[in-house]
Amino acid sequence: MKLFPIRGGIHPDYRKELSSEKVIVALPLPAALYIPLQQHIGVPSEVLVNVGDLVKKGQMIARSGGTLSAPQHAPTSGHIRSITDIPAPHPSGLAQTTIVLEPDGKDEWGELPAPIVDPFTADPHTINERVAASGIVGMGGAAFPSAIKLNLGTQKKLEILLLNGAECEPYLTCDDRVMREHADEVIDGARIMAHALGVHRVVVAIEQNKPQAIDAMTRAASAFSEVEVVGVPVQYPMGSERHLVQAITGRETPAKKLTADIGVLVHNVATARAVHHAVRFGRPLISRVVTVSGKAVREPNNIEVPIGARVADLIAFCGGFSVEPESLVNGGPMMGQPLPGLDVPVVKGMSGILALTAAEINQQPASSCIRCGVCVTICPCGLSPVDMAAFIRKDNFETAAKLGVMDCVSCGSCSWLCPSHIPLVHYFNYAKGMINAQDREQRKIEQTRMLAEAHALRVEKAAAEKAAFLAAKKAQAAAASAAKEKDGTPA
Amino acid sequence: MLLAVSSLTIMGVTLGSILGAAAYFLAVEEDPLEEELKAMLPGSQCGQCGYVGCSQYAVALAKDEAPITLCTPGGKAVIEVLAKKMGVTADLSEHEEKVPEYAFIIEDLCIGCTRCIKECSVDAIMGANKLMHTVIAEACHGCEKCIQVCPTDAIVMHPVPLTLSSWHWAKPEDQHVVH
Predict the structure, then answer these.
(1) How far is A447 from chain B (nearest CA, A)?
(2) Do B170 and A94 touch (CB under 8 A)?
(3) Are residues B79 and B106 in the same domain?
(4) What's the average pLDDT block by block, 10 residues per block, for chain B (179 residues)?
(5) Cβ-based contacts of A430 with chain B (< 8 Å)
(6) What residues in A contact B78, CB-CB < 8 Å?
(7) Per the domain annotation, does B39 fall within a domain?
(8) For residue A275, pLDDT beyond 70
(9) Which domains does chain A possess?
(10) Cβ <8 Å between A455 and B76
(11) CB pair distance less than 8 Å for A455 and B122
């Protein structure tokens, strides 16, 4: 298959060998599971259980909170100990509502929805509903509710379902292991999604540094003519969906558009496996494979973790820390976010937990820009990081937006390469946050204006009604008195 | 026939010119800038700026009689658009400290008098006579008008909490130079 080049990018030290040969192992059930209501992009889920309730494995414990939302399910059987606010696995460390489940050790399945026997003749709507009810969200990290993406098949003209197995972030090996060990499940899930979307071509893209995964997936796909497995060049950020689409099709996704607008829908390989479980067995998304790695971890590993296990449980399972980590990261080292602590739970979008030593992160103080232009040359989005950062530094977000800061995918290539160690991507994340906050404020003002207008209208209408009512009453009274006078009976 | 047509024509022309002259001589002067500024303000007529309502504040702004930082519910966003329209630099130094707030009714103190409901210009308060009231936090824009009319001091202002979706990264510490 002909591949197309992508712009810029970098070649960091991959360090995948720390965990790439470790077979996926299941985490022993921890003493408590902490299931946050917001593990996805959109509205938080709504709690369906009460403290003290006995729940079965796979039972829905929080339902979808709206159109853009996802339900949560019990990862094992047990009692609901409490519903409380605990820190989220988010750089802010802000608390969010979390259901605390105390496993009873029986790990008993509850009643599951019936498997869809022949998904390839089923109505796409049935599959979408099953995916939505199973709480499946994008497992590559963004955690976007998958059912909404599957519904795009009816709204946009799609040609290709692109399965993202690039895993371009250093350290992470969870997708690699899933593809090596569960290739059949991934391919089946992908074919089911393709059927739901109405597309007739599935491309699985895997970076060439994972030859075993490419082999396993090619073998699993050999029986199906519509599925093609492609090895893509090792070039960070190949796993960014826009860049992967460009590498496969040669088409560039326009700014502010989705890849679906140019006919390609991208899903992560682990998401495809979750769809397979939901459709073939009726099992909701209650566990995921997480890579625990970094040189501060004694025994890096790939672990199948029930959603809600604490990060501390995983670290303990990997033998604890060999040295005090300098930095704890949720996700990969390039785009991952710092973890606020070890007590936060594993969520659906968490692909890796990294405990890095000072030597690994190589943090250095920033110095002056020497205007070497490297950031401009390697920006995979074709932006000019040096200019944008200069404007953002002066809080000039308008110009930064004109220069395209909202099109930055925060891949971190510029920060990684900058010889002056300027935290460029940090500037862009800050600017994006500020621009979004301004948009929110503007929307709030518009909403207030709308409400104020509606209020004024309502008050006016009420006054008019009252006046009409009084006038009618007066007329009635006048008519009555006139009638009395006519009767000649003095009051 | 001819008489009717000509008399009506004469009447039309005369009355028309009187109307035209009246419109010209008795015209109420309105600054187009006022209209534009009014459209930028939230329009909730809360009066926190010290003027009766948004249009009066817009008039004062257009005449350059009022600073652009008076609109509390509008916050920084309104100040910035006003600054851009007026061609001045906004002095946000004082404003920065004020975080957005929403009203909250202490349920134990509420006697259900409905005064706050009548006062609210965005219909953000729910409740009925002699029944407890509550504020719909998403609709409240923090004008504080309800606090002034509450006979039992049951309304307090709460800062709008930071959530996972509204949180964002702070500015990197400025230790280096990007020219």
Answers:
(1) 8
(2) no
(3) no
(4) 94 95 83 84 83 88 86 81 83 65 92 92 91 91 89 92 90 62
(5) 168-172
(6) 445
(7) yes
(8) yes
(9) 16-28+125-302 (3.40.50.11540), 367-491 (no CATH)
(10) no
(11) yes
DSSP codes of every residue in A25-50: EEPPPPS-EEEES--SSSSPPEE---
Give the total number of structural domains in chain B.
2
Token readout for A274 is 């979750």
> Where residue B151 sits, what CATH number does that domain have?
3.30.70.20
Cα–Cα distance for residue pair A474/A113, rounded to 1 Å:
66
Q: Which tens digits make up the pLDDT trace of A419-461?
A: 999 999 999 999 999 999 989 988 988 898 899 889 989 999 9
For residue B119, tell me if it sits in a domain: yes
B77, A422: Cβ pair inside 8 Å? no
Cross-chain Cβ contact A430/B169 below 8 Å: yes
| Pairwise CB contact (< 8 Å): A423 & B172 | yes
Write down the pLDDT at residue A246.
96
The span from the CA of A230 to the CA of A166, in Å, is: 10
Name the percent of chain A in helix, strand, coil, to the closest 5. 40, 20, 45
Within a domain: B27:
no
Q: Which residue shows structure tokens 């393709």?
A: A194
Same domain, B117 and B143: yes
Over residues A59-79, the pLDDT tens digits come to 999 999 999 999 999 999 999
Answer whether residue B17 is part of any domain.
no
Read off the pLDDT of each residue in A206-227 and give the average, rounded to a whole number: 96
| Cβ contacts of A455 on chain B, cutoff 8 Å | 120-123
CATH number, domain with residue B70: 1.10.15.40
Q: Whole domain around residue B82: which residue ranges?
A: 33-86
Closest CA in chain A for residue B124: A451
Judge: B169–A426 Cβ closer than 8 Å, yes or no: yes
CB-CB: which of B43, B170, B177 is closest to A368? B177
> Nearest CB to A92: which of B73, B75, B164?
B164
Same domain, B79 and B116: no
ipTM entry: 0.82
A322 pLDDT above the threshold of 50 = yes
